[in-house]
Amino acid sequence: MRSEAVRAAARRLLEEGKVVRFLGHAPGFDPTSPFPQLITRAEEAERLVLDHFCAPNLAKYLLDYETQEGVTAVVLKGCDALGLARLLADHRVARDRVWVVGLPCPGMLDRDKAAALLPGVQEARAEGDEFVLTGAGGERRVAAGQVLLDRCLVCAVPTPDDADELLGEPVPGRPVPREEDAAVAALEAMTSAERKAYWTEQFSRCIRCMACRNVCPACNCRSCCFDSEEPRWLSRVTDGPAQEMFHFVRALHVAGRCVDCHECERVCPMDIPLMKLNHKLLQDVEELFELERAFVPREVEPLGIYRPDDPEEFA
Amino acid sequence: MKRVGVFLCWCGSNISSAVDLDQVAEQTALLPHVVHVEQYKYLCSDPGQETVRKAIKEHALNRVVIAACSPRMHERTFRRAVGSVGLNPHLMEIANIREQCSWVHPDKVTSTPVAVDLVRTAVAKAVKDIPLEPSYVGIEKRALVVGGGIAGIQAALDIADSGYEVVLVEREPTIGGRMAQLDKTFPTLDCSSCILTPKMVEAGQDPRIRLLTYAEVESLSGYIGNFEARIRMKARSVDLDRCTGCGDCWNKCPYRSPGEFDLGLGKRKAIYLPFPQAVPNKPVLDRATCAYFQKDGKCQVCKKVCAPGAIDFEQQDEILEERFGAVVVATGFDLWDHGRYGEYGAGQHPDVISSLEFERLVSASGPTDGKIKRPSDGKLPERVVFIQCVGSRDEAKGVPYCSKVCCMYTAKHAILLKEKIPSSQSYVFYIDVRAAGKNYEEFYRRATVEYGAQYIRGRVSRIYPRGDSLVVVGEDTLLGQKVEVEADLVVLATAVVSRSDAPQVAQKLGFSYDQHGFFTEAHPKLAPVETNTAGIFLAGACQGPKDIPDTVAQAGAAAAKVVRLFAKDQLETEPTVARVDRARCAGCEWCRPICPYKAIEMEAVTERVGSGQVARRVAKVNPSLCHGCGACSVACRSGAMNLLGFSNEQVWAEVEALCL
Amino acid sequence: MSVAEREPKIVGFLCNWCSYAGADLAGTSRTSYPTSVRVIRVPCSGRVNPQFVLRAFQLGADGVLVAGCHPGDCHYSTGNYFTRRRFLLVKRFLDYLGIDQRRFRLRWISASEGPKFAETIREMTEELRQLGPRDAAAVEAHAE
Ligand SMILES: Cc1cc2nc3c(=O)[nH]c(=O)nc-3n(C[C@H](O)[C@H](O)[C@H](O)COP(=O)(O)OP(=O)(O)OC[C@H]3O[C@@H](n4cnc5c(N)ncnc54)[C@H](O)[C@@H]3O)c2cc1C
Ligand code: SF4
Ligand code: SF4
Ligand code: SF4
Ligand code: SF4
Ligand code: SF4
Ligand code: FES
Asked: How many whole angstroms separate alpha carbon B60 and alpha carbon B38?
C-alpha cells in the first residue's frame, strides 16, 4: 500500500540525521501479521512495509528508547497516535524526541476475517469500498465491511492530528454508530448472576499472558501492580477470584485513559472480550462526568479531577 | 522475626462485661507472630501502661496490639508508652473493641466473634508495621504579609510584636486599605482614621516591619517554613530615602486629575500623597498623569522644587527576592459595580452614588471637607434614599451571598446624615436587617428611633430623574403597596465582592479560592484562617465579607498561627505521610493534581543503565506539606506511591485478616 | 447454620475524621446495630483503593461500605470528591462484573451521625440478607 512511501521517509529522515532510529513494520512469519521493525541506517529501509495488515500499534515501543539519546521516528495511524497522546499525557515520552510519520489510515484488515474469506490470504489491496484479497487460494473481492477490523469500521480518527509528516492525504472518520454500545447494553440487560456467570466463563479462559497489558498504551507503568510482591495484588494462581481481580484492575486502571484502540483485544490469544470491559467504563465516564470523546487523552484524566456537582448517589 | 504482644483491656467492665475476653485471648494466642497475650483492667492507666512496657521488655516484643477503646481516644497515649521503652511508636496498632464492639453489641455470644476479628485484623496490620520517623525542616522566621489594609497591618503588628521580622507588601502607595476611606465606624461611631492612623504609624515605625508600598508579589515558591517570594517594587519616581515628605512637589505640581482615594470625587496632582495620614508619608508620581512622562518630557516642576533631590524620573521597577517562613494574605475586597443595574440608572446619574462614595463625602478629610454635597450640583441633600442589598443576595445579576456589613453601615450613614444635616430625612429600602453582632441591634435601633431613619421593607424597582431630584420607585412589602420617594441623593449599599484579580493572586501564591473569588479557608469551622497550603494564612475581607472587628480578630488569629510556627526551631512533620518508591515510579504525574496540598513535585533521578547514566523524572513527596490523606496512593496505579501508616500492604492485610 | 441464615458480613472502610468518629459516637451513645460489620480505619475515604473493595468481596464479604465526610467537609478538603467520582464508576463496574451494586455502598457519615451509621448498617444487613449469599447466586446461575 504505502511501503514505498514509508521506506522513502525512513531513508530521508535517517540520512538527514533528523532521527537516529525509525520504527516501522516489517513482514513477520506470514505477511498478514507484520512485526514491529526498528532500523537505524538508511540502507535498512528496504525491510519496511506498510500495508493493510499493519494493525500493530507502534507507539508503545517508544518506551524502549525512553532512556536513549536521539529522536525516534515512528509510523502511526490515527488510533496509534492517540496511543502516543496517551504516553505524552502520562509524561512517559517527550514529544520533541519523537518524529511522527503519520499514516492517514484507510482501515486495517482483520487477518482472521480475511483468512476465513480467503484461506491462505497473503496480500490485500483496496479498490474503492472493496478489498481484493490474493493468496494461494486465488483472488477474492470482498466488501470493506466484511474484512476490516471491528475498530476500523467505527474509527473516528483515521488521520493522526499531531503528525510531523503525513504519508498521504487525510482520511475522514467513519460516522458509523458504535456497535459496541449494543454489546455493553446486552450485558447490562442480564441479571447480576448471569453477568457473573458470563464473566467467570470468559475470564476462566485467560492464560495471563499479559499481552493485553503489554500492548496497551495506557498500561505504561514502569512497574505494573501485577508484578508487585508486596502487596501481592494478584495471586499467582489463576482461580476465579484472581482472574476477576486481574480483569477488574486492568480495566479500571485504564478507565478514563483507554484510547479505544482495541489493541488489547486484538492481541489476546484467547479472544477474551476485553473491549466490553473498556467500553463499559468509557461509556460510564462520558455519561457520569459529562465528557465527550473521553478516549482522547487530556491534560488531567477524568479520575484525577472532580466537580463539586458530580452526580450524588451516596448521600 | 515479628514478635507481637496483644493487650486486651477490660475498660473496667465496659468491655469485659460484653465481650468474653478469655475467649478472645485464647483465639488470639493462636495467631501467627503472636507471642504474648495479656489482659488488664485499665490499660490506659499508669499501671496499665507499665504492664505493656514491662511485657515489651520481658517478651522482647517488637509489635504491640492494644485492644481497647477507639484509637481516637488513646492512640497517642499508647504510642508514647511504647516509645518510652525504645520501641518505635508506630509499631503499635489499636483494635477498637469498645466503641465499635462492646458498646454496640451488648450480647457476649455475638460480640465476642466481632472482637476476635478486630483483634486479628489489628495483628495483621501490626505485622506489616514499619518504624516511622518524623521529618524535620528548618523555618525561616520571617513573615510576608500581602495587603496593607487593617487586616494586614494588624497581622504585621502582632507578628512583629512577638519578635519576628515582617515584610508588608502593599500595592497602593500607602497602607490603610478601605478603612482609611471610611469616615466613622459602626457601632461606636469612632472616627476611622483616629483608630487606624496610630496603627499605620506604628507599622511604619516598627523596626521589625519593612513596608514595601507600591509593590506586588510576583510569585511565591517553596513551602511552609521555606517560601521564596519575588516582589516587584513599582517605580515610584521618588527616592524614599531622600524624600522628607515636605509637600513642595505636590503643592507645585500643575496637573490635576481625579483622585483614586476619593473615588474620583476629588482631584489630586500627578505627584501626590493619597491622603494626609498616608504611611509612608511620602508622595508617588503617577506616570500616567504626569506631563513629563505623557507630554513633552519638560515640566519637571517637582524635580526643580524638591530640595533633597528625591525626584527620580529614571527610576525603574525593581525585583526583590526574599525568603519567608509564613505568609499572611490580606488583600481585602472591592465593591460591586452598580452600573450593572440598569433600573438604578446604570451608574450614569451623578447623584446615585455608592456607599463608599458616601463615606468620602461625609469624611472631614474628604473632597468636600465633610460637607455632604451631592455630586451633581453641590447642593446639600435634604431627602436621601439608602438602598440595601444592591447586588447582594441577587442570584440573577449580582452575587448570592449577604455582604454582611451593609445593614450596619447604612444605619451608620443614616445617623451621620442626620448629624450633618439635621433637617434631612433618610429612607432605607431593605430586604431585612441583619444586625447580629455585639451592640449592633442597638445601633440599628438608634438610627431609627433617635435619628428618625425611615425603613421601608422592599426592593427598589426603578430610579429616574425628575427635575433636579430623583424618584425612587419601590414596593413596600409590609404594606403591600407601591411607594415612590423623591430624593436628592441615592446611596447604594453595593455588595462586597472579591478583588477583581483575586484568582490570579491565589494562583500566584498557590492556594484556592471559591466561585466568588474569595480565598478558601482550609476548613470552614476548624481552620478558618489557614489555607489549604500549609504556612499561608488568611486575614480580613479577602476571605469573605467582614467588618472591622471580625477582620482584626482574624488578623490576630492568623498572626498567632504564624507565631506558633515561628516558635519552633524546626518543623516536625507527622511521619504518616506518602512516600514514593522511586524504582517503581514512572513519573506519570497522575498523583500530582490529586494532592490537595501540592505536596507532590517531580524530581530528576539519575540511574545506571548498562554502562551509562540516565536521568528520569519521578514523583517526590514533600513531607512538610503532605497531610497523609492517601489520595495519591490510589491515583498511583503501579503502587509506587504509598501511604506510611496506612500502606497498601497494611490495608490489604487487614482486608485479608478480616475476611478470614 | 444454613447460608441463608448466616449473618451477612460487611467490610466497612471508614474515614478517620468523620465516619469512624460517627461509628464511635454510635458506641458512646450505646446505639446498637447488627454485628455484621467489621471496620477498617483509613485516614480519608479517598484512601480506599477499589482493589481493596474487590478483594473484600472475593474473600467472602457480602457487602462493602465505604464511608467518608460529607462532600465539602473532607478533612483534606477534596478527598471525598475523588472518592465519589471513583466509586460512581466502580459501583457500576462491579455490577457489570456480576457483583450486584446493592452490595456496595458509599455513604457520607459525619462525626455527629452515629445514628446514621447504625442505620446504614441495619439497612445494609437487611438488604444483604434478602440478596442472600453472593456465591450461591452465581453458582446457581452458572449451573443453569
Ligand atoms: C462603605 C463601607 C463602610 C464600612 N463601614 C464599616 C464600619 O463602619 N465598621 C466596620 O467595622 N466595618 C466597616 N466596613 C467594612 C471594612 O471596610 C472592612 O471590614 C475592612 O476594610 C476590611 O479590611 P481588609 O484589610 O481585610 O481589606 P482592605 O481594607 O480592602 O485592605 C486590603 C489592602 O490590600 C491591598 N491589596 C489588594 N490586593 C493586593 C495585592 N495583590 N498586593 C498587595 N496589596 C494588595 C489593598 O490595596 C488594600 O490596601 C465598611 C465597608 C464599606 C464598603
Ligand atoms: S491477552 Fe488475553 S489471555 Fe492474555 S492476559 Fe490479556 S486477557 Fe488474558
Ligand atoms: S485498554 Fe485496550 S483499547 Fe484501551 S488503550 Fe489499552 S489496548 Fe487500547
Ligand atoms: S494494569 Fe495498572 S499497574 Fe499494570 S501497567 Fe496497567 S495501569 Fe499500570
Ligand atoms: S497523602 Fe495526600 S497530602 Fe500526602 S502527598 Fe498524597 S495526596 Fe498529598
Ligand atoms: S508515584 Fe505513581 S502516580 Fe505518581 S508519578 Fe510515580 S507512578 Fe505516577
Ligand atoms: S477525611 Fe473524611 S472523607 Fe476525607
From this structure: 14
Give φ, ψ of A51 to 5 degrees.
Answer: -140, -170
Give me ligand 2 centre to Cα C32, in Å: 48
Task: Tell me how many helices (H) and strands (E) chain C has.
Answer: 5, 4
Model-level pTM?
0.77
Domain assignment present for B653: no
Pick from B181, B176, B182: which is nearest to B199 by CA? B176
The helix/strand count (H/E) of chain A reads as 11, 8
Chains contacting A with at least 3 CB pairs below 8 Å?
B, C
Residue B611 and residue B508 in one domain: no
Query: Domain end: B460, B475, B497, which one?
Result: B497
Q: Which of C18, C24, C70 to mutate to test the pocket of ligand 7 (most atoms within 8 A of CB)?
A: C18
Owning domain of residue B12: 4-127
Q: Do A221 and B588 touch (CB under 8 A)?
A: yes
Q: Is B326 found in the same domain as B191?
A: yes
Tell whether ligand 1 has an atom less than 6 A from the beta carbon of residue B213. Answer: no
CATH number, domain of B582, equals 3.30.70.20
Instruction: Report angle CA B179, B181, B186 to the nearest 5 degrees.
Output: 55
- Class (C level, CATH) for C10-143: alpha beta
How many domains does chain B fold into?
5
Give me the pLDDT at residue B338, please. 85
Search chain C and give the residue with CA nearest B72.
C21
Residue B132 lies in a domain: no
Chain A contacts of B587, Cβ < 8 Å?
A: 91-92, 222
Q: Do B360 and B487 fall into the same domain?
A: yes
Q: Which of C:125-144 have CB within 8 Å of B?
A: none
The 10s digit of each residue's pLDDT in B209-266 is 999 999 999 999 888 999 999 999 999 999 999 999 999 999 999 999 999 999 999 9
Beta strand pairing call for B641-643 and B578-580: antiparallel
The answer to whether residue B108 sits within a structural domain is yes
Residues B339 and B400 in one domain: yes
What integer pLDDT is reported at residue C139 of this predicted model? 42
Does a structural domain hold residue B658?
Answer: no
CA neighbor of A220 nearest in space, from A25, A129, A90: A90
